[in-house]
Design a protein that fits this description.
The chain is about 40% helix and about 25% strand. By secondary structure, it is α+β, with helices and mostly antiparallel strands.
Length: about 170
């Protein structure tokens, strides 16, 4: 008998599955899909067993390890973040214990940063987690594809709703 492998219902269910998969495969106590808007760093989806952070939480983008990773002053995977000066200096490191970090950008097809796929843990991790970078990057690209598809679908729905509303209005 064939097992049915179905498409995800939407980007949120895809993200939850990816976060659970990465947690099970790589470890780390917190995995997130985030969005950046100005200096806001918004948690869209989360797999958290340690820090008690919830989806919808908003942090300062400039305080984050991810901001430093995007600027190129810190690596995408830091098995021991205390060995990375840029991460030690990050304000978030003074707020919560971060012993290890994984983060990759979520880039839109037009080259604009959407947010990040990232993880932290209070404990340093074995150096071998750096070998998982290609997998994390692939997951990020796939997630961004699903996110963009959902955003395009929502934009088309809004456009159709506006067109319908406008058709009900007499221009006179």
């Amino acid at each position: 008998m064939l097992n049915n492998i179905q498409a995800f219902e939407n980007a949120e269910t895809a993200a939850k599955s990816v976060l659970q998969f990465l947690h099970d495969r790589i470890g780390l106590g917190l995995w997130m899909v985030t969005r950046t808007t100005g200096d806001s760093w918004i948690v869209l989806n989360i797999q958290d067993e340690i820090y008690n952070i919830k989806a919808g939480a908003v942090f300062n983008w400039s305080d984050s390890f991810c901001c430093r990773m995007i600027k190129g002053v810190g690596p995408r995977i830091a098995p021991n973040s205390s060995q990375i000066p840029a991460y030690l200096a990050a304000p978030i490191a003074q707020q919560v214990p971060i012993g290890s970090y994984v983060g990759v950008p979520l880039m839109q097809s037009n080259g604009v940063l959407f947010g990040t796929l990232c993880a932290i843990d209070p404990q340093p991790q074995p150096d071998r987690i750096a070998q998982e970078l290609p997998l994390v990057e692939l997951c990020a690209r796939l997630l961004m594809t699903v996110l963009e598809s959902d955003m395009q679908k929502m934009a088309a729905q809004r456009h159709a709703e506006r067109a319908e509303q406008e058709s009900l209005v007499d221009s006179l």
